[in-house]
Amino acid sequence: MKKVIKIIINIIMVLAIIIILLVGYNLFQIKYLKQDYGKLFGYTIFKVITGSMSNTIEIGDIIIVKLGNNDIEVNDIIVIKQENYIVTHRIIERNENNIITKGDANNKADEPITTEQVIGKVVKIIPNIAIWERVFATPEVFISLTITFILCVLVFSYKDNKNMENDKK
Fold first, then answer.
1. Which among 36, 41, 53, 104 is most buried, taking Cβ atoms within 10 Å?
2. d(CA 159, CA 164)
3. 117, 77 Cβ separation under 8 angstroms
4. The dihedral of CA 132, 138, 143, 148: what is its sign?
5. pTM to 2 decimal places
6. CB 113 within 8 A of CB 58
7. Is the distance from CB of 68 to CB of 80 less than 8 angstroms?
8. In degrees, to the nearest 5, what angle opens at C-alpha 124 toward C-alphas 119 and 130?
9. Whole-number Å distance between alpha carbons of 100 and 118
10. How confident is the model at residue 110 (pLDDT cuts 50, 70, 90)?
11. 3-state DSSP of 108-156
């Protein structure tokens, strides 16, 4: 039982380190390399902040975007850069030079754009992340979880040290 708990704690620690490294790398790209968004292995993620794609993508959902504009077709959901903001809409029409997009919840189509404005194609929608973000961003919850985790690590390492001392005797 002790070995299983130790393995679980080690797995959690490794996952936490990986997440911290990925977040750090993402922040480095945005803050120091002055990029509009982080990129990793040809993908990026965005948090949706408007309801223009409601019923398909809701406010607070996370979208995973495959970077590039090579394999986009009519009906694909794409992410585009327009002036100083980033938009996620569906392609409703495409010809050689222009792409026309529209938000699923919008009444009219957007102005035509070029393929150079396309950041990438949405490949995955992760719903309801906003709920978890609000829960874990609450200081009371975050502090409670952190203290619980530290106490668990201390308790199990103390028991392991005590067992080692008994084995030596």
1. 53
2. 9
3. no
4. negative
5. 0.68
6. no
7. no
8. 100
9. 11
10. confident
11. CCCCCECHHHEEEEEEEEECCHHHHHHHHHCHHHHHHHHHHHHHHHHHH
Tell me which DSSP letter residue 50 carries.
S
Phi and psi of 3, rounded to 5°?
-65, -40
Average pLDDT of the residues in 110-134: 85
Query: Which tokens in the block code for residue 115?
Result: 């393929």
Please give the single-letter amino acid code of residue 81: K
What is the C-alpha separation between 46 and 125, in angstroms, rounded?
10
- Interacting residues of 131 by C-beta distance below 8 A, sequence separation 6+: 60
How far apart CA 39 and CA 43 sit, in angstroms, is: 6
Q: Which amino acid is at 102?
A: K
pLDDT for the residue 155: 77
Query: CB under 8 Å to 14, separation ≥6 — which residues?
Result: none
Contacts of 39 (CB under 8 A, 6+ apart): 29, 67
Which three-class secondary structure state does DSSP give residue 164? helix
- Which among 93, 46, 97, 44 is positioned nearest to 73, based on CA atoms? 93
Q: Tokens 């404005």 identify what position? A: 117
For residue 87 the two structure tokens come to: 């938009």
* Helix (H) or strand (E) run with residue 132 in it: helix 129-137
Long-range contacts of 92-100 (CB under 8 A, 24+ apart): 99/72
